[in-house]
Predict the structure.
Amino acid sequence: MSPDFQTAPTAQSLSRIALVGNPNTGKSTLFNCLTGLRQKVGNYPGVTVQRKVGRTLVDSTEVEIVDLPGTYSLAATSPDERVVIDSLQGDVEGLDRPELALCIVDATNLQRNLFLAFQVGQLGLPMVLALNYWDSAKKRRIQVDVEGLEKRLGIPVVPISASRAEGVEDLRKAMGRALKDKPLLRSPDFPAAIPEAVLQARSALSEGVEERLSDAAVLRGIFDGDDRVFERAGASDSQIREVFSLSKKALFQGGLNPANAEAVLLYQHIKDTIEPCINKGDGAQLDGSESIDSLLTHKFWGLIAFLSLMYLVFQSVYSWAGPFMDLIDGGKALIQDGVSSLLESWPMIQSLATDGIIEGVGAVVIFLPQILILFFFIALLEDTGYMARAAFLMDKLFSWCGLSGKSFVPLLSSYACAIPGVMATRTIQDPKARLVTILVAPFMSCSARLPVYVLMIGAFIEPKYGAAIAGMVLFAMHFVGLLVAMPFAYLMNKYILKTPPQPFLLELPSYQIPKVRDVFLRMYNQGKEFVVNAGTVIFAITIVIWALLYFPRLDSVADAARTDFLSQVAADRGVSLEASIGLVESEETLQQELEHAVASAYIEQSIMGRMGKAIQPVFDAAGFDWKITVGVIASFPAREVIISTLGIIYSLGGDVDEETGSLRDSLVHQTWSNGPRAGQPIFTIPVVVGIMVFFALCQQCGATLAIIAQETSWRWAAVSFGFMTLLAWLSSILIYQIGTSWF
Amino acid sequence: MKTLNDLNQGQTAKIGSYKPAFTASRRLMELGLLPGVEIRFIKSAPLGDPIAVDVDGRQLSLRRADAAQILVQSA
């Protein structure tokens, strides 16, 4: 996006067109086709529904197109769904009512698609109808009399094939004319009971309130049983009750059932209106999807195909991203080295630049490979139509705890990284199911936990119990989170969100060949949104952590550490203190050890180190000493730093990794220096298992919290943090206490 | 009375009515699952639930618990 696009001064005066349609009508393809890269993605205020706005030329003037979420009906049962009706009525804060609705329908299934079109038409918005999938309609010998349809509906009807960009120029022309002529969809002639119900509803409202509502708005309120319509206009509770009781009575008297009046009347009207214009050929029912499904949702082969596909997705996010992440890491190290040598003479600026700023940027960019690869596959899975099949196959496994099959892909991706996993929950439309999936996702054992498992298992489990048990423990660690997460989801749904059992309704759309542009734009938008929103927070957190580990950098700390080190060397080698200075200067390894000792002293005296010591009593019951506690605390922004933090604390330098022998050795040899356990090894098996379970369950990832806040709110990010941390803490205590008394 | 849940694979029936307590009936009717419309039971998922049905050339999936709320008549 060019900056001038965002700040264009004409933004106020642009004509606005709302793009509406059912899911799976090729709406996104049309939007991408019209706007290309000239689109912006954001959220609607207060809800986590993606808001896509783009620009395109109509009659050589620029217009703004708002891509509204795909929906089957304007009846809103959730805040997310309300976005569509609110946008069309101009009730969204800061957004004007659109001047024109561009309604996209599937030409092979006009009847059902026109239901939404008529609902939109009743709001009094001028409309243009785009008949998409015109090519496959022709292939399936479905004939639509476009001119006849235009006459009967009263609005321009344009056949298009969005995926081939056919008919899009005609559509632009039609929109240009419609912005001037303002054609209205011919309203159905409803039986007298309907206007009577509206009249009755009006009579229940006070004058001021009544004036604020159009007939269309009142009718929507009656049809949907939606209090909010009247509430927002200022009606009191008693007025609202009166509205519903009077209007329902009017409907009953007209022989209509308020629960289904709209569906029955509209479908009847649609049938009468369009039947003469449509000729479904002999092959109308067949589009090949069912024969593909005889394999892909087959009892045996369907599951095999599904597992293979998911394995491919998981592998690619887990391993294919690896080289790119290494590249980013390598590049980051290069830049750090370069900048570091440039700023040699200003140690604090040097540390801020390398360990703060560059580290922070690196911490954001490092997630991009996984996000982009995952969304490449998600776009493919969704655009082909397979995603719905995956949900169909997996639903049974999730329904018992209040989730649905749609949670599978986000949770699987969370095993690689919770960031793309949480972003992938956008494929779940039901807001409560999405929220629970988001809260459950960080429990999945992500790749950043692996180093902790490898270090602990390699240092303690494997030497003691052998490779077979070590492998099993590693495997088991990947299920700890899942085992906790499923009951958590169940309890969350049952007691906290109090979700009534949600009917699971899923369309299994016809299989399609995905468009390269749609896939690319999906990756681009997701990547950009991550960097702009969550990225800022991740960057800020990194800087804060840097400061906590850096300050107060007192010279006296370094001096004391140096003196200690020198006298240690003097004692070890049996030389005088002066001679030891010479030794350190001449021997490179000693020099390095001295540096590590100073770094270790600095971290012990840093704000973070002091916090670790102050907080250690909290972890005492879990058998953690202050060094482990500092490691744990320093790992809250990003758990993968535990290894390098432990390296620094144990005076090995920050360059260690989980396979480093010296780190394993020094862990094995750590003993309690004082207290009741003085002289005993710190890392006993219960402590080791406790640390691993702590890392498995704890919410130690600032990036995940940032993304949860972006997708929900900071309140839910706080819930996730509090709950997971508490659970991790209790579990490690439980394991230590039970483990120590049993073994 | 027979429900959608009782149909066998490949069987076609006509939607009769919805059980009164079924809160999702409105949603289904908006999707065109109105009384009198033909519905075909395509198959159930490999794990037994949910099921896939065909309505007017469109495939939808719903859970057996919801399907048991939809009364059908043999076509």
Remarks:
- The helical segments of chain B are 25-30, 64-67.
- Residues 25-30 of chain B form the longest helix (6 residues).
- Residues 1-38+64-75 of chain B form one domain.
- Chain B has a mean pLDDT of 90.
